[in-house]
Amino acid sequence: MRRGPSTVCDLHRPSLSRRGLLAAAAAGTAMGASAGIRRAEAALDGARSNAITPEAALTRLRDGNGRYVANTPANRDFAAGRAARAAAQYPIACIVGCADARVAPDFIFDQGPGDLFVVRVAGNFVTTDGLASLEYGVSVLGAPLILVLGHSDCGAVKATIDVMKTDATLPGHLPVLIDAIRPAVDLAEKARAQDPLAEAIAQNVRHSVRRLQQAGPILAEAVAAGRVKVVGGFYDIGTGRVAML
């Protein structure tokens, strides 16, 4: 079976050994070793399949969503890339998504194993450990893009609206979700939108985007330097389309 350039095998080439490259570089003279180290580092950077701009990463997500909507997913040989994935991961984007079972980022954006670094929680808001995970995805794995993905008919946002209207008390740890989403519902109420739920979902996404853009020191510095972009999107479960917010 023929494979196109978008297969997992092509996207995830085996990583080079840093120790081996640097050891080879050190075998020459001091000047030669220095030049060898620079060449070794460049080779390692070149081997990273996510060494792309934030805009290029976003384009890949847009294109993948287009394939998902059209029901024409990329033909991938998943077995071919397993050895490379066992050695390293080079995600092109970090996704902050909802835990909703209908919202699966890898399918929505038609990406293969290792392409997306996903953090999911009901209501797709940013938690402290979620922020730490995103910092890891950016600073260690080199992901150039963070996308906060809200979706239609979000139960967590809907529950927050209901609780705020009725002043109900939820059991267990569910109030934690309500408290996290409450600021977005407040903003939606002030906007007096025709569709309060859709507006609250959008405000919830924008709230998380702003928080991530300003989250110092790691993300804020990466955003300011242009190495990383933080954007928001809205996934329509009924159509499969993702609209940027």
Salient structural properties:
5 strands; 11% strand; TAT_signal; Beta-carbonic Anhydrase, Chain A; 11 helices; five-stranded mixed beta sheet; 51% helix
The count of helical stretches stands at: 11
Q: Trace the largest sheet across and list its strands.
A: 2-1-3-4-5
First CA to last CA: what distance?
39 Å
The biggest sheet, with number of strands, parallel, antiparallel or mixed sense and barrel status, is: 5 strands, mixed
Overall morphology: globular
The class by helix and strand makeup works out as: alpha/beta
Q: Can you identify the CATH class of the largest domain? A: Alpha Beta
**What order do the SSEs take from the amino end to the carboxyl end, as H and E?**
HHHHHEHEHEHHHHEE
- β-strand number: 5
CATH architecture of the largest domain: 3-Layer(aba) Sandwich
Mean of residue pLDDT values: 85
Strand content: 5-15%
CATH topology of the largest domain, anyone? Beta-carbonic Anhydrase, Chain A
C-alpha-based Rg, rounded: 21 Å
Helix content: 40-55%
Number of domains: 2
Question: What can you tell me about this protein's structure?
Answer:
It is a single chain. With 245 residues, the chain is α/β, with parallel strands linked by helices. It folds into two domains: 18-47; 52-244, Beta-carbonic Anhydrase, Chain A (3-Layer(aba) Sandwich). Helices cover 51% and strands 11% of the residues. The protein is built from eleven helices and five strands. Strands 2-1-3-4-5 form a five-stranded mixed beta sheet, with helices on both faces. Helix 6 links the parallel strand 1 (93-97) and strand 2. It is globular, with a radius of gyration of 21 Å. The two termini are 39 Å apart. Residues 1-46 have low confidence and may be disordered.
